[in-house]
């Protein structure tokens, strides 16, 4: 029953839908006919007038601006004023004069169009017309002046500008155009006056700034043509010419410092203190950054600062040496003689350091590295021996200086520390540094990174300092080095010079008192020195 | 059972990929834009002739056509604006289509979407065309102004090489004009592949509002272009359909909306929604009733929706700020037209219920929808 009903309903629905569709299709066909006739009618109808009243979006802002400030437009350029005409026309003029003004403006707009087309003759005619209608607006004169300028009738241009200025003293454009005309006429002084007027009226005018520079340049050039107007060259002055040599042609010598001194004129000196009345404290307060009291850093002669640190080093060495010496004294009972000798070594050291110093200086100045440092110490020792008697008391006087102690690095605790410090030290320092290491620890401290460079350094130190000082520990040091794991390789790779050095050390050690012949034999074997 | 019925009236198979279909205003003709297999652009004009379609004209150009609009042309001169795969915007006079009225290289990449306004409406500003492109830019054109856009809304230039650039620039998939209720006011809504939705105010030249959808925005349309913003329909990938109430903008919450997540899926025999989440490709409001609109889905189905306003469209929150209230969406009718996505659809502006749809199965269909006047 219900299913039958449903079926009937469905059929009804389908039928209704079908009729609905048929109706709508019929409707569509009639509409098609209708729309086709309408379309035809529209095609045959006259083309609609395209109304382009609505502004293009990107132009809207531009055309709105002049309406907001019509006063600025008057003094503005002719091109700018044309855009604002539609709005101006809408304003109803109140009286006859205003009406005339409006009429003149219309004429001017025509003139502006001619200017855009670069038809300056016509534009001049139009502006003249405008002037005849309404002679109280400077804009017509300025615009006409522009046309004259373009046509290179500079005299007329100046005349027009003057009439514009007579109407409006603050007319920037008039001054600017008169400047241009004067410049072209060659009246540079007049142009300069106009230019400065423009800049006073409109300080931000970039064109005018540029023109000012240009005119100034020209004035200067003209004045130099007639003869130089600056003072003759001073005798003290040196012309330093720029050089453009290629790099390979330039001098290999290092640059020399040339002290440059400011020449302060007395007038300048008088003026400066007047300007600087604010004290430093006040400045600090203002900027809220107290940097402590002001201390002047004095600059000495350029070469002195380089010398000074070397001297400090020299001072440093002495006490250390003496303390080391005193240790030795403690160890060996029969050494009164030695003590004298070792003390006598002190001046030798100092002169040696001095000598080193000089050589540093020399290398600094002359850039000559040829000098053989290896021979030096022996020479200096000789010098020292001759100088012995005089310099004996000196080291004792210097001994107690506390700052000196700090300069020698403390004995290294480990291998890494040793190598880092070692590289930084000078030859003399190395000696003391090496001595500060307890001999039984030496092998461990040299460690696995013991390389040929360090080896030769150590040998050099032994040769240069231990031997001349007749250190009793020399042999022990050599022995300790030989215990190092890397030593066997290093000994094999020893150069001839190094071997010679080791041999000389051995020979010297043999002459030492209390030399252990047994140990020396062993060393000779280990170092493979025959 | 008095629901509107959508019936396929005519069917025309073509031998090219259809990208857009549009009725020519005040005529029984529509045009089809597409890409031929050799990637030439093709424009066919068909005329309804009772039981059959008659091809009136064919225009072939060298770059494939993507989208077109009559929005900026008057009824009389029928200037059709087309965006193509090479980023060129051309305006063709359909009487003399060989020579473009306006031709500009608008974008560096394909123009995905186009919309026009100001052609037929009175007192709603200058005729303008907006284009959105894969290069990320949205540009507004006025054919009276040379080769430059009147407004260029481009993402800021990116640092880095070309590879990175292509990654960071969003692809603009949808644009729509709206809010043009007088000579000055006008808005452009733009949807991007990452789900960004931006509303640009062309008068103030500023971004008025931004939102981010869950998926890329495929379709955008204001219910009317030439009124103060009323509703904006947004369709997205994975079947999202959102209707924003654009009357009231809350200072912090923006516009309120109603969302339908299953709009892209096909409707089975008993009205059961099944199938995968499919893209909602397009949305078109009925020209005769702004609360009725149609969406074209990725499964080849189209759906007719009706928006029902709430009792009160505006409420005040605790701070006294006004906040819009979204209404409800009611699905009126659904029909599966094709096995492929229906991605272009156009209601005839003059005849209620007459529409043309283009699908990716290389065919165009003329549809009749009955009883729309009963809604």
Automatic annotation (TrEMBL), chain A:
Record field: compositional bias (Low complexity): 75-87
Cellular component per GO, a single term: protein folding chaperone complex
Domain RNA-polymerase II-associated protein 3-like C-terminal: from-to ranges: 412-499
UniProt biased composition (Basic and acidic residues): 364-382
TPR repeat residue numbers: 104-137
Entries under InterPro entries matching the protein: RPAP3, RPAP3-like_C, TPR-like_helical_dom_sf, TPR_rpt
Keywords, in A-Z order: Repeat, TPR repeat
Biased composition, class Polar residues, residue ranges: 64-74, 345-362
Highest taxon, organism lineage: Eukaryota
Region Disordered, annotated ranges: 40-110, 321-401
Family: Belongs to the RPAP3 family.
Name recorded for this polypeptide: RNA polymerase II-associated protein 3
Organism per entry: Drosophila rubida
Automatic annotation (TrEMBL), chain B:
UniProt keyword annotations, A-Z: Repeat, WD repeat
Pfam family, one: WD40
Domain of life from the UniProt record: Eukaryota
Repeat region (WD), residues: 129-151
The protein's name: WD repeat-containing protein 92
Organism for this UniProt entry: Drosophila rubida
